[in-house]
């Protein structure tokens, strides 16, 4: 009899468990679905942001490639303006065309790299190192301007940098200068 009573108790306990799991089940399922929906929405939002960023980067890269091809034209304009031996009217016209051209490219994102002081390997390339009394790495002359488009380096500036003279060379040069001065004074 006890076995029969135990069997009845187990049967009663099982429906109670089933009822509890059935009650928990829809709520849990709803919570799981909400969680999945929120995750999918977040993933989709991240996807949209990533696509927009990639599209913008592709657009910038395309613009940078075109502007990089125009840099020799800028160099030639600057060379022509600096060596003008033509009528004042023509010189003024060429200068206006050049300034319009540069302002258009600047509004698109082109900027000339600032070059001063010490050599920066990320913005300049060394064409020549000349011996000088200046500190090593000091920029002596800019041979060709460098340009960047937004954050994209188009062309580094080409520079001539200082190279410290050796102490013996400096002494010899000073002695030669003194001799030259003495000769001039003696004449």
Describe this protein's structure:
With 187 residues, the protein is α+β, with helices and mostly antiparallel strands. The chain has a domain at 113-187: Nucleotide Exchange Factor Grpe, Chain A, domain 2. It is built from three helices and six strands, in the order ααββββββα. It has helices at 2-82, 88-108, 167-186; strands at 110-112, 124-132, 139-144, 147-149, 152-155, 157-164. Strands 1-4-5 form a three-stranded antiparallel sheet. A three-stranded mixed sheet has the order 2-6-3, with no helix packed on it. Helix 1 runs antiparallel to helix 2 (88-108). The radius of gyration is 38 Å and the shape is elongated.
Low-confidence stretches: none
Element pattern in H and E: HHEEEEEEH
Name given to the CATH architecture of the domain at 113-187: Roll
Count of alpha/pi helices: 3
The percentage of residues in β strands lies in 15-25%
Task: Tell me how many strands there are.
Answer: 6
Distance between the termini: 144 Å
The percent range for helix content is 55-70%
Question: How would a textbook summarize the main sheet?
Answer: 3 strands, antiparallel
| Annotated CATH homologous superfamily of the domain at 113-187 | Head domain of nucleotide exchange factor GrpE
Strand order of the largest sheet: 1-4-5
Radius of gyration over alpha carbons? Answer: 38 Å
Overall geometry comes to elongated
| Class per helix and strand makeup | alpha+beta
At the first level of CATH, the class of the domain at 113-187 is Mainly Beta
Averaging pLDDT over every residue, what do you get? 81
């Amino acid at each position: 009899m006890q076995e029969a009573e135990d069997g009845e108790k187990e049967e009663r306990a099982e429906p109670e468990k089933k009822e509890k799991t059935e009650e928990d089940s829809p709520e849990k399922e709803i919570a799981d679905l909400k969680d999945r929906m929120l995750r999918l929405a977040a993933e989709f939002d991240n996807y949209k942001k990533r696509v927009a960023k990639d599209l913008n980067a592709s657009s910038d890269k395309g613009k940078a490639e075109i502007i990089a091809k125009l840099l020799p034209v800028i160099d030639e304009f600057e060379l022509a303006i600096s060596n003008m031996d033509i009528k004042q009217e023509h010189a003024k016209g060429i200068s206006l065309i050049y300034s319009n051209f540069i302002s258009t490219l600047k509004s698109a994102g082109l900027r000339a790299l600032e070059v001063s002081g010490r050599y920066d390997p990320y913005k300049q390339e060394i064409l020549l190192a000349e011996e000088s009394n200046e500190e090593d790495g000091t920029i002596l002359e800019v041979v060709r301007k460098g340009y960047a488009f937004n954050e994209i380096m188009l062309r580094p500036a080409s520079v001539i940098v200082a190279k410290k003279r050796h102490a013996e060379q400096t002494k010899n040069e000073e002695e030669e200068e003194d001799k030259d001065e003495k000769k001039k004074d003696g004449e």
